[in-house]
Design a protein that fits this description.
Chain lengths: 330, 285, 328
């Protein structure tokens, strides 16, 4: 039984100013499933729509963002949630932080900069669940933080007294205080040093392994996915182009975009030349017709220019949206 | 420029009102050029006539047609407002951008001068000056003096922006492209500062015209010169309200309201339009 | 031309700052007795690698003459940068050393067309008297980076991709025909599919335009790909430096080893070794203030002597290492 089922999701931004109207097709027909007990990675460059996808999945849908079509359905153990129809109150009291929580890049927006860390914990717990015995709550929080490998006196510090890596780990502790079914991590380690990144991601992996929940990890860094995710989905210009278990997608990527991304990554020990891809990621306000990757694709067919490819299911749990597969060319 | 006006007219209701009000004001002011009456001369028309088709603003107790008198008054007040605004903007921009960008001693020196002007009480000084120059304070002189008082607050605002602009990467890019400090402040920083400049221009105009009205009502300016303020002065001198010549006061007050409203609406709508963030969104950024 | 054939000679440079209030506060030595040199006749790509807090940003400011060292000298083509006083001399220096910044969307003012900066450079550095004369120079610089005036003419930064802007930024740096380009994290904010274009461009500049590149980054993978030599920085010190293959294929300093191990490889079959647990250690300022080797807090090979005093440079396996494990 899948945790989350996203079907044919289309979410656009519509703005109108001084007579100029723009529609940004940030998510344009995405279907995916998140299983329980997995780390699902979403890879994509800037302005591929992954932030919008996360917003819809987390229920943060506010104008000018509008869901045009599709279904976003959760099956938490005891109850179901239709994310597109749930009331804001219901979302706040039952879902947010308890079933779905969020870890973002920088995390300064989660930790109140003028309050000690423990106060932010209190605020979150009080808002979403409430507590009667303050001493018990403090003891529980300390224990939670200690189990995650953090020194408990970190709770008494202000965010600016913590290093970037420590802040992120505190943000993860905050996100897991109710043991949610889904943790959405949006570029959680992008600005961090490589050693610190390793520590933070290991912590995330440990949490996932222990609680058996689901982590949705969104980052442009494919190497991170290689070491952390169980399955990886690649997004391009508002659509999914490929999705597969990690080993499979790195050994046998089928979509030309994925192939380029993986083969262009430099590795220590290898100085052989790596090619770059011409063109640039398209504007989501004015995407190309047909397959959105066709202007940059080294194997483009005529069909690609006019017709958008459907997602095909291949062996081993791999899905690809590419005419080269349907035509049997590759 | 025309495209900007056309866009604003089409889409911004405030601008439409502002356009109408200010157009009316401008037409009245410009029509002073074809006035059949010299505002300095009295008793050219029957006195104390209420507003009618022949005399749309009525006539006052000195036998002057209020419509044409207000035309001159508006022209003078607008001139004062604009000139004060220009003088004080130029000083504010120069002081603010230079102090913000150069920092150090230059900044400290400029800001001491700046703050001295802020703490000086404007009205008493103006009253003193007008006593000293009794009757001989021309409009240009008043504009210059008001301009000299009108820059300090805005210079600080502009300086604050310059301080943050100095830290941005594109300032470094300009430095490494060999651009000198003056050019950097004008080419790189000024465009960001323009919305503030524009906003403060209108505020400044409102302030200076208001100051002039205050001075004139107190009889401290050149009362022979027609301005919105002197209209009220003369009306009070002749106790117009008591005598029932309400139109003598109504004319300057209504004209002032239309002018102020027009300026305010203009400020409000154009300010939003030229804000760099709006411009970026419009351009699709 | 310099007396001893060195393009850039960094001699025992130290930069110290006072952080904290007027009373109390500490002395932070951001760059600590750093020395290295780039040869004149042989253009190369030299990487300064380090994490945040390593001092690489401060060092880049010293090399651009944005800042004067507290001790030591930065000598460019025989001239001590600290002696540059007049604007004329500063301009001459800028013609020879040019930066490329990290954030493409901040490098140019969002309210100016990007080509304006190239025209500015051409005219300010005396390469052209007016706009008309500057046009072919601007066009040539753009062609060197794989663009053209047609493509970028009249465009504002937000109308170009991050990759394109970085290329324009490099073109701008090339206008005065510099000898050295200082690229500070030039691709960290550029999309993955556009990154290699910029990185390959630096190689081309070294090979075809005889321009040396000082590449400052924390990304060891791209550093390996394009550099000739590399220096690993930790808390103000260079702990290991030498040919990039030697330093990164066979790292000697424990910190370099830790860095190399921590890089996630795009190879899922090796993920288990990456997953071995590490201790993230103490906060940055504490590590700076430490007496002795700055890595002592997390080093698996720690010895008594490590905590006593800073280790000296030792030569081993074709590179220089600052570690007590190796004989000085």
């Amino acid at each position: 039984m899948a945790l989350l089922n996203v079907e044919n999701l289309r979410a656009y931004y519509r703005t109108e100013m001084y007579g100029i109207s723009r529609t940004v097709r940030a998510v344009d027909g995405i279907s995916l499933e998140l299983q329980r007990n997995e780390i699902y990675g979403v890879a994509g460059e800037s302005s591929c729509g992954k932030t919008t996808l996360i917003k819809v999945i987390a229920g943060a849908i506010k104008p000018p963002l509008k869901v045009e079509e599709g279904r976003v359905h959760y099956q938490f153990g005891e109850f179901d949630v239709d994310m597109l129809r749930i009331s804001p109150d219901d979302l706040r009291s039952n879902v947010r932080w308890k079933e779905i929580s969020y870890v973002m890049q920088g995390s300064m927006s989660v930790l109140n900069p003028v309050r000690r860390v423990i106060t932010t914990f209190e605020d979150v717990v009080a808002t979403h669940q409430g507590y009667t015995d303050k001493a018990a709550f403090l003891a529980q929080t300390r224990e939670h933080v200690r189990k995650l490998g953090l020194p408990p006196d970190v709770l008494n510090l202000y965010p600016h007294q913590l290093s970037g890596g420590m802040r992120q780990r505190v943000a993860i502790a905050l996100a897991t205080v109710f043991h949610p079914s889904l943790i959405i991590a949006d570029e959680p380690t992008t600005a961090l040093d490589v050693v610190v990144q390793r520590g933070v991601l290991q912590m995330l992996k440990d949490i996932q392994a222990e609680s058996g929940n689901t982590v949705l990890l969104v980052t442009h860094d494919l190497a991170v996915h290689a070491n952390v995710a169980d399955r990886v989905a690649v997004m391009y210009a508002g659509r999914l182009v490929e999705e597969a278990p990690t080993q499979l997608i790195f050994h046998a990527p089928r979509h030309p975009y994925t192939q380029h991304l993986i083969h262009s990554l430099p590795m220590i020990g290898d100085k052989s030349p790596r090619a770059s891809l011409g063109g640039r990621p398209p504007s989501l306000a004015n995407p190309p017709a047909g397959c959105r990757f066709h202007p940059r694709c080294p194997h483009v067919l005529d069909r690609c220019r006019a017709e958008a490819p459907e997602m095909l299911r291949l062996a081993g749990g791999q899905r690809v949206a590419c005419h080269l597969i349907t035509e049997g060319v590759r | 420029m025309l495209r900007v006006i056309r866009d604003l007219l089409k889409y911004d209701g405030r601008f439409r009102f502002a356009f109408v009000f200010l157009l009316a004001v401008l037409i009245l002011a410009i029509s002073s050029a074809i006035s059949p009456y010299d505002p300095g001369r009295t008793f050219k028309v029957p006195a104390d006539q209420p507003p009618s088709l022949q005399y749309p603003f009525g006539t006052n107790s000195r036998g002057q047609d209020m419509l044409w008198w207000m035309a001159f008054a508006l022209r003078n007040s607008l001139f004062l407002g604009l000139m004060t605004a220009v003088v004080s903007r130029v000083i504010a921009i120069f002081v603010g951008l230079t102090a913000g960008y150069r920092g150090g001693f230059v900044d400290r020196a400029l800001m001491s001068i700046n703050d001295s002007f802020i703490v000086m009480p404007v009205l008493p000084v103006l009253i003193l000056l007008s006593f000293l120059l009794r009757g001989r304070m021309s409009l240009v002189m008043l504009a210059l003096i008001l301009g000299l008082f009108g820059w300090p607050w805005d210079a600080r605002l502009i300086r604050a922006q310059a301080l943050s602009l100095k830290e941005r990467a594109f300032t470094r890019t300009a430095v490494y492209s060999g651009t000198g400090s003056l050019k950097i402040t004008l080419n790189e920083h000024l465009p960001f500062v323009l919305p503030v400049v524009f906003a403060t221009t209108v505020a400044n105009m409102l302030w200076s015209i208001g100051m002039e009205v205050t001075l004139s009502v107190l009889g401290l300016s050149n009362v022979e010169l027609p301005t919105i303020g002197t209209a009220i002065f003369w009306a009070n001198q002749h106790q117009a309200l008591v005598a029932g010549i309400w139109w003598w006061l109504a004319a300057p007050v209504v004209v002032a309201i239309v002018l102020f409203l027009g300026l305010y609406l203009l400020f409000s709508s154009v300010n939003e339009y030229i804000d760099p963030r709006t411009r970026l969104r419009l351009m699709g950024g | 031309m310099s007396a001893n054939g060195k393009l850039l000679d960094v001699q025992h440079v130290t930069a110290a700052f006072h952080i904290g209030g007027l009373l109390g506060g500490t002395r932070l030595v951001a760059v600590n007795d750093i020395s290295f040199a780039l040869e004149s006749g042989r253009p190369e790509i030299f990487t300064l690698a380090g994490e945040s807090g390593s001092g690489k940003t401060t060092l880049s400011r010293l090399l651009l003459h944005d800042l004067d060292p507290t001790a030591g000298k930065v000598i460019f083509e025989g001239r001590d940068l600290a002696t540059i006083r007049k604007r004329r001399e500063a301009l001459d220096f800028m013609k020879k050393v040019q930066p490329v910044f990290q954030n493409p969307f901040e490098t140019f003012s969002p309210l100016r067309r990007v080509e304006e900066y190239l025209y500015d450079a051409a005219m300010n550095f005396g390469m052209a008297r007016n706009r008309r004369a500057a046009t072919p120079i601007v066009d040539e610089a753009l062609h060197l980076v794989g663009l053209s005036l047609e493509e970028v003419s009249k465009r504002y930064p937000h109308e170009l991709s991050g990759g394109q802007i970085q290329r324009v930024s490099v073109a701008r740096a090339l206008i005065p025909h510099p000898r050295l380009i200082l690229a500070d994290e030039p691709v960290s904010m550029v999309d993955a599919s556009l990154r290699m274009a910029i990185v390959n461009l630096f190689r081309k500049l070294r090979d075809e335009q005889q321009v040396s590149v000082l590449y400052i980054t924390h990304d060891l993978a791209t550093a390996y790909y394009i550099s000739d030599r590399i220096a690993i920085m930790l808390r103000g010190f260079i702990v290991e430096s030498g040919p990039v293959e030697a330093v990164l294929d066979r790292p000697l300093h424990p910190y370099t080893r830790l860095l190399k191990e921590s890089i996630p490889e795009p190879a899922p079959q090796h993920r288990d070794s990456w997953a071995t647990h590490i201790d993230l250690g103490t906060t940055e300022v504490k590590e700076y203030g430490r007496v002795g080797c700055k890595f002592a807090g997390r080093c698996p090979h720690i010895m008594e002597v490590c905590r006593k005093a800073d280790p000296l440079d030792a030569e081993a396996d074709g590179r220089i290492v600052k570690c007590y494990l190796y004989k000085a």
